[in-house]
Amino acid sequence: xxxxxxxxxxxxxxxxxxxxxxxxxxxxxxxxxxxxxxxxxxxxxxxxxxxxxxxxxxxxxxxxxxxxxxxxxxxxxxxxxxxxxxxxxxxxxxxxxxxxxxxxxxxxxxxxxxxxxxxxxxxxxxxxxxxxxxxxxxxxxxxxxxxxxxxxxxxxxxxxxxxxxxxxxxxxxxxxxxxxxxxxxxxxxxxxxxxxxxxxxxxxxxxxxxxxxxxxxxxxxxxxxxxxxxxxxxxxxxxxxxxxxxxxxxxxxxxxxxxxxxxxxxxxxxxxxxxxxxxxxxxxxxxxxxxx
Amino acid sequence: xxxxxxxxxxxxxxxxxxxxxxxxxxxxxxxxxxxxxxxxxxxxxxxxxxxxxxxxxxxxxxxxxxxxxxxxxxxxxxxxxxxxxxxxxxxxxxxxxxxxxxxxxxxxxxxxxxxxxxxxxxxxxxxxxxxxxxxxxxxxxxxxxxxxxxxxxxxxxxxxxxxxxxxxxxxxxxxxxxxxxxxxxxxxxxxxxxxxxxxxxxxxxxxxxxxxxxxxxxxxxxxxxxxxxxxxxxxxxxxxxxxxxxxxxxxxxxxxxxxxxxxxxxxxxxxxxxxxxxxxxxxxxxxxxxxxxxxxxxxxxxxxxxxxxxxxxxxxxxxxxxxxxxxxxxxxxxxxxxxxx
Amino acid sequence: xxxxxxxxxxxxxxxxxxxxxxxxxxxxxxxxxxxxxxxxxxxxxxxxxxxxxxxxxxxxxxxxxxxxxxxxxxxxxxxxxxxxxxxxxxxxxxxxxxxxxxxxxxxxxxxxxxxxxxxxxxxxxxxxxxxxxxxxxxxxxxxxxxxxxxxxxxxxxxxxxxxxxxxxxxxxxxxxxxxxxxxxxxxxxxxxxxxxxxxxxxxxxxxxxxxxxxxxxxxxxxxxxxxxxxxxxxxxxxxxxxxxxxxxxxxxxxxxxxxxxxxxxxxxxxxxxxxxxxxxxxxxxxxxxxxxxxxxxxxxxxxxxxxxxxxxxxxxxxxxxxxxxxxx
Lengths: 292, 341, 328
Ligand SMILES: Nc1ncnc2c1ncn2[C@@H]1O[C@H](COP(=O)(O)OP(=O)(O)OP(=O)(O)O)[C@@H](O)[C@H]1O
Ligand SMILES: Nc1ncnc2c1ncn2[C@@H]1O[C@H](COP(=O)(O)OP(=O)(O)OP(=O)(O)O)[C@@H](O)[C@H]1O
Ligand SMILES: [Mg+2]
Ligand SMILES: [Mg+2]
Fold this sequence. Notes:
The structure holds 3 protein chains of 3 kinds.
Chain A: H1 19-25, H2 27-47, H3 82-118, H4 120-135, H5 138-149, H6 153-180, H7 183-190, H8 195-231, H9 243-252, H10 259-286
Chain B: E1 7-20, E2 23-36, E3 40-44, H1 51-59, E4 67-76, E5 79-80, H2 86-92, E6 97-100, H3 114-124, H4 129-142, H5 148-153, H6 161-173, E7 179-183, H7 191-208, E8 211-216, H8 219-225, E9 228-233, E10 236-242, H9 243-248, H10 253-260, H11 301-305, E11 310-313, E12 316-319, H12 334-340
Parallel strand pairs in B: 3-8, 3-9, 6-7, 7-8
Antiparallel strand pairs in B: 1-2, 1-4, 4-5, 9-10, 10-12, 11-12
Chain C: E1 3-15, E2 22-34, E3 38-42, H1 49-56, E4 64-69, E5 72-73, H2 79-88, E6 89-92, H3 106-116, H4 122-136, H5 153-165, E7 171-175, H6 183-200, E8 203-208, H7 211-217, E9 220-225, E10 228-234, H8 235-240, H9 245-253, H10 259-263, E11 305-308, E12 311-313, H11 316-327
Parallel strand pairs in C: 3-8, 3-9, 6-7, 7-8
Antiparallel strand pairs in C: 1-2, 1-4, 4-5, 9-10, 10-12, 11-12
Bound molecules: adenosine-5'-triphosphate (ATP) (2 copies) and magnesium ion (2 copies).
One magnesium ion (MG) binds next to helix 1 of chain B.
């Protein structure tokens, strides 16, 4: 028996800190978190009626006034407050984005994990399905679903979810395929661990990183897709505000009232860029090789 | 085996820094050594001690801007490459000195015929197409490939690991280099194939007087190939000397420990292996004194305060404050005593 | 000493993708492991060492043959029986980075084993046992809270060993347990392994491509070539006076860390390379490279025969020499 007892060596720094804290230390992550925070505050304000005005209430005499102390982001042609409409639009977009990404993650992600882990016919069937869905151009597919099922935010969410499900399927399946073959999973089998335990406790935590990154990215795409659909008149229906719809309306009045186009467009860009940065930040933080 | 004459390569106080996200790490901390014509210098050390970075700096192949040479001289045939123009360096690289890497698969282009890859080296150094073709045949034959014509038309994946390493060596030989740097050329190969490659390199050396720097962590390989040995630890060469001398009378406790830690190759006794406690330090770790102190059985107070200078002791030199006659802990005493026991 | 593990004519074929040929990775391997014994298996890459190891712990289904643990055939064990088998026979993997879950601290890793097999009373009891396991492999109890990436390679390999020992097995399958470690750290793990074996009365199957390490730890050594055991016998005779020309070549190829010894060892390298296991040569697998090859070697496969007491080799030439000696 060796008497060589290992002396204490100092822990490498930055390993025990929580990852949210590390995200905050990351430049991309911090920007992303700030943007997300702003969006969520706006959406919550809209949800709990804490807005300066009712987004649907028309102030005819104040129609098309520019940004001012009274109307921070100005008003539209009916004299509705742009800030309040924007916040409500953010709420609508976020709600659809979150719901659709949640559905896509659950369905696509779980199917991908199961397909990767169990292989065999499960993998073949799910893979074929994903290929079929993937073969359609995303926007056309969403359009087709909406045309078939009708309008409304739930259906829009489903349409977007269907588009993103195969992406989550692939993002989850790939890493599971390789982790399944990792020695520590084999060691678990030799130790007599059951498949469910191996899947939940050993495989899943090690494939969470790419899925989480994908969630952040998918959220930004979903916001963009929802805006596109609304812009085309297939998403949220007037008079309810939505970012895409507001861009569409603002377009025609751009020469008279620039803020009607600039405010919702900026909100979309901000949300998309912010969530992308958040995705990058999460990747930096979760990938041990990039850990500073 | 070695003739004593002008060194082909003379490295003096070479320093190389790696810039990382967490800060700069000096991984080559003032390394000096010479290699003479026809001589094999083994650069020995454990993973991460800076062997590859040292020779990549010598070859001017270190990845920039992450890795940067911050000081010292690399004098090849009288020219200091650190101060030389890019033009000069390019003409030395691949022609004056050539390199063989550990993994024969990744050092060949999988999409290019073997003959074209070797020929390209000749073309890149201003040779004609005719010259290139002739040289491809010559070097493939030199490395013991049975049918050079057929081999030249083959792609790398058509060869086994050992044959691929022969091709890589053939490529290195294309410009008749005076110095061959081999970075763990046999680590990925089986021992019987390793034996073939070692025999090949020795034959080439005997034929054309090439100098060789052979990087390895396997002391057995060192004993087989080396005329001189340089032992690296945490960015320093801690001991340097003729192979026999270093094995029989190690001057540095690290060398001593390394030699003692491998099982005896013969005899019916199998005592527990002697070991060096702990593990090699992280290269970014900065030591006030000698980096081996935390693992050193012979250390005295001075060792952790000040980096020892290189001390000449006969034909060897070592970076250690405590000479072997003052060592307090038991020592292996080198291989000869060990085998005799 | 009683036999604890008996391997009988074990075979593994892998289909070659996109063709109807098969790779014969393991071809009729038989050996016995006695209680408290260390069997070393040595051979070059692709000779079937890992495949054999994986079949011993049923990570891989055997194509043919039996593995008897007592009177239980591992190759035919049902799922429930396998659970018991796995408490008796454990494995340590080559790569100490890949074989530990990067997201699990050491304490939880060991605790999980104890929990799954109900090996200690309550959380308190398990904690106690985790501490015991850590100290068994020479690590302080504080290491329980460390993640794998917070440890060195040698420390990680100690954890791999502790985890295998958690179920109190009788047999450890060690597949290249020190090959991925630094030279100065290999000695530490080797000493730990010999110490544990002697203290806990474990039996080892120690697999390595490094004849020096196998020689150091084994009681008996089996030499594999192209899926077969070509020589099997007591450690010192197999490593120092081998009967099979392949073992002789292997021994000559391993460099000795002693320049003086090396200077007197000018042995011609073995020619050629290991044949394709999907397309082995006729007769003896070693015949295309063998310096002693005879016409019979290219025609009939040699059997593994006891040429000296307890020392077996599969070679026509070696067998012929012995017959000569006996008859003269
Ligand atoms: N491009 C790089 N970026 C960051 N770190 C590097 C880079 N190259 C080398 N290093 C670090 O510098 C140190 C020295 O590396 P080097 O490759 O020279 O070691 P080595 O002695 O060749 O080791 P090995 O035996 O593993 O090949 C290592 O700790 C390595 O992690
Ligand atoms: N999953 C697999 N599918 C197909 N062929 C395989 C598989 N695993 C191993 N083989 C083949 O079986 C043979 C034996 O492989 P094995 O991994 O057992 O060798 P080994 O002796 O452990 O070698 P090494 O020293 O390289 O680890 C090799 O030819 C290998 O290519
Ligand atoms: Mg290297
Ligand atoms: Mg193996």
